[in-house]
Fold each of these.
Amino acid sequence: MKSFAAPECGQSNAVVSLARNFGQSNQRLPATVSAPALSSTADSLANEYLRAKAAQPAPASFNMQSLTTNLPQNMSAASTSLANKWASEFAQAPMSSSAQLATNWTKQYNLSRPVYSQAWTTAQAPMSSTSMQMGQGTSHDFWSAEYLKTVDDKLKSPEEMGDLWAREMLSNHEGREQDVWHNNSDAMEAMWKDIQRRCEEAQGETFETPAQYTYQEQNPYLSELDPKVLGDRLMGENDAGNAMLAYEAAVQKNDQDADAWCRLGLAHAENEEDKKAIAALQKCIAIQPNNEEALLALSVSMANEGMDNESLFELQKWLVAHQGGDVSSITKSPNYSSFLNETMFAKVEQEYLNVARQQGGTADAALQNALGVLYNLNRNYERAVDCIKIAIAIKPEDPRLWNRLGATLANGDRTPEAVAAYREALQRYPTYVRARYNLGISCMQLASHREALDHFLSALELQKGDKMSSTIWSTMWSAALRLRDAPPNLTPAIDNRDIQGVKQILQSFAS
């Protein structure tokens, strides 16, 4: 091959020489050949190759101008000519049904095109009394033209549009909206008055007004000559339910008997009816503002109903009455929150502590009892327990103090101690509905739901008045849901307020 390659290549090629040497057995390479020598030969060959490539001219790039000579000189005219040529060819071709339909649509569009243009121009023009007067159009009037003609000429101002809308609504419905408006106005006015009343009650402006008391429909003691004496005897027999009816008969005979109202309120409180107790006790205080027993009992019932600030106000009046002062001089500051007024609480607490310090080493059971109620309001149950225990040490046979101690211990998460306190109250007053109910709640907290149901059932059987609306039912229903393996007919019986049915179910469940 050398004879053929030599004339073309001229001088000897180093790459060819290298290939010839490499083609021989590499075993013949001297062992003393070092890497730098090989590297130097490779670098010289690479540099020679790069110089040869650099000496060659670069290839020419693609020239776009060479194509422009093949394009038409007038692109617009050429494209128009091409389009016309295509259209003529299409027109000469046989026309299908779809093509015929397209042609008809095109002709129709061309005929109505001026109407479209006019409508669009009018829609873009500024609104004025002249531009909104649309003339008679063809059957192909643009939708915006009709819109401007029927609607936009009425949108002169928001006030006029509102009047127009009102007139249209009244005419379409023959004036019925006027009645609706008046009815809504009356409803809004009634709602506003209700809001004002609630705000006034929250501020204490009308809370001192006694609530309306509702009497029992059937009272067997209305014919008694002295029902209040009968009520006292029934209370002595631990029968608060019938005593309540006797006191009701007493106030119906004489609605200005403050003492009868007070005893009626106490009977309702022991019967687990705080709302009725509040109404009766307010009647008593309205007649006899300095009645200490009524003031303290009213404070307790209000606290049970979540009326902390009102309860605090009654406790403040109680302390004044307890010292022989005039409670009419005490005014309640406005309060706009349902949360306890801490500033007012600190003031009343200091007043109580000052009176307690003045007593020296002699403890006052009534004052310690009121202090226990006071500390229950701000959830300071430790101090409340200490105060009530001092009162119990002075009057250990008072079941109300034992029940109050149990409730305070339960609020302070001392449920086992609370159960013991409730049992002490029931030992002294077996028909004490409130203590029986509280004991059931403590049993629920200890997960003794079966025993809790028994206590709730006993409380309902002892409770007098409207048992169907008693709040004990809802608590009993909650206990029934938590009872393991409860009979399926237990909750329906509770929903139906069936005392005897619940009793039979629980008896069969126990056996």
Note: The domain at 217-288 is CATH 1.25.40.10 (Serine Threonine Protein Phosphatase 5, Tetratricopeptide repeat).
Amino acid sequence: MATKVWDGFIRGFHWLLVIGIAVLYFSGEEGWLEVHFVTGYLLLALMATRLIWGIIGSQTAKLSSLFHSPKAILASFKSTATYVGHNPAGSLMVLAFFVLIIVQLVSGLFTTDDILVEGPLVAHVPYSWAELAGDIHHTNIDILLIAIAVHISAIVIYRLRGKNLVKPLLTGNTAEPVSSAPAMRSGLIAYGIFVVLSAILLFTWGYEPLMALF
């Protein structure tokens, strides 16, 4: 019997993040500035929603469920035990992604190239801070791409070991036996928060680049 382990928002968050990071990277590389900024604001709203949902959301969405001892993390690399939600090693990867993505998005708010690109908060900090933010923004994306490659490799390795990590993030369910079904909340609540935060950020910072797309 299948057990629901991921709510609708967590599943949507994962795939929206995949699409958003791809668009953010390619728009930055191709110089599509309006697309880059609008995508960045939407991803910022998405990450903020995920953090809020990590406090008020479903049991497997809780941020507290992502923290494990080093001993548990090391043991999970060898263990074939079934976990409700992310295992300790997977939780560490999730936390790493959260940090890298937030650093990328926040540094972009303070980044300028003195020609065309200027984040909405550049004018509020010393120029040296903007230069530092620009360096972080350009270096951090490379680290993020490496982390993505490691993540994909881990998914492949687990698949070869007989564990499909992708399917539950599509269906929300696992067919593996669990001790008890996790408590779920409707993902529609989180999507509502996401829409509100997106509207605020786009109205505050993204109105001009958004209008430029139409």
Note: The mean pLDDT is 91.
Amino acid sequence: MTGGNRGIGLAIARELSAAGDAVAVTYRSGEAPAGLFGVKCDVTSAEDVDSAFAKVEAEQGPVEVLVSNAGITRDKILAVMRGEDFDAVLDANLTGAYRVAKRAVKNMIRARSGRLVFVSSVVAFNGQSGQSNYAASKAGLVGFARSLARELGGRNITANVVAPGFVDTDMTAGLSDQIKAAAVERIPLGRTASPEEVAKVVRFLAGADAGYVTGAVVPVDGGLAMGL
């Protein structure tokens, strides 16, 4: 999985590992998580992606499940957002998903089996002031995954999207109490999610029990974007 050394990504990696899967994580900065096989990789580089897959395949064999989670934010209102900020977020969050999915499906097509899970965001459906680049990248994952679901379904390869809402991570920990309280007020369940709650949904989509689920968008947002 990509972006697996912190936050939601790390929770997913540990959940899959606990379920008995051989898990490999990529990370752009920091260190590999303890107890997991890690490969440094920048998903904006096709060469990095190919090299990372080669290392994982040499260590663990062909990739049977891809969880595309790596992403960045560069928040600004549109009037002052630089073109490079828009391009960088789309490149990491959406085109990065294309790069890793393209590399992963080569072996999946041969094996006539595979799971693709893309981590989007509630922002893809609600929108968010100052995040037009991020929202566009995360919304793009839905169309990308659903196209792959149609394209690859005949090879027994599923493609699904998980859309987390407000999750307790390092990123949200830096927000003020006022912003957190305002966010929780809009959530029907009245609370934020833990990374582990998102991870359990990903584990389901990656497993045998989800063999007939493809092209789905599964919100893990406490009801925040229901109906959208």
Note: The helical segments are 7-18, 46-60, 83-111, 123-126, 132-152, 170-173, 177-185, 195-206.
